[in-house]
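Hi everyone,

Forwarding the result from last night's run.
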Amino acid sequence: MTTYLPGVSGTDPAAVYAAAVRQLADAGFGPDDIVHVTQYVTRAGGAVDVHRVPVSVVPVAGFPDPAHTFGVELVAHPGGGTVIDTGDGGVLRIAGDLVHLPSVHTTTGEFRDQYRWCLTRIGELLAHAGLGLDALVSTTDFTATATRAEYPRCGRPRRELLGPVFPGAAGILVDTPVAAGAAVSIAALAGLGPLRPVNPGWARYDTLTYQPGVVAGNTLVMSGFGALDPATQLAVHDGDLVAQAAFIYDNIDLVAPDARVTRILEYVTPAGLADYDKLAAMRTERYPDAAVTSVVCSALLRPEFLIEVVPTAVLA
């Protein structure tokens, strides 16, 4: 079974990786079992080379510990899954029902052109596994606060290129790009076999290009959740991180009532950081089996949001 490990962060990439590998060993895995690596970097060009494993390089504003500058999150599967070389130095890994890809970005063109290029590139990568963009179960977009007003323009390329089952999605604002000139970068995950959308009855998703969750095999991959009332589409609990998190966790439970949450990725804004440690007990009580990774972003798509939570679960 695919296993998510909690994120590790620090100041020295080598030491962070060493801590992540020790954590991997404690979970009963070795380096050959790694199927995906996420590197959280606070500066452009801060990524570290990793051989024969897909790597998503995610720009972040920082970490809950303000001294930390680099983070790593590992995903493991017994035997390391199936390795697929893309022929241009890239690699995919198929593990169970999921296809792990590297993140993508370009530095050419305006925001919407770059967004379309990223989706097209993801499609090219998936073609090496005999799949298309219709296999996507999630996308996470990383772009700058300055593009917040322009961000809805990504709806058109998503509608034209994705589906018929739209993937889950999250949009994170980080003012340090993954590379100079990159207006957006996308981390994506795909699934094998027929995909099933999951929606507890929220009508707002009828017109959107993403779903609250998508099932591939026995894995439920969910969108990013902020403190947004699905019925009114209004932000709730303005300025209260703990109340926002409780509201989000309630909505996650509506999407995954019979599933076991195995991974929680939380993006917290600088305005929410002072109260972030207050979430630990509530989160552990609700999701005792979840590997938790916490990073700081510059902002979120709704200015009222202090936190966005991206969960993954296994169906019972």
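Residues 84 and 155 are 30 Å apart (CA to CA).

Cheers,
N.
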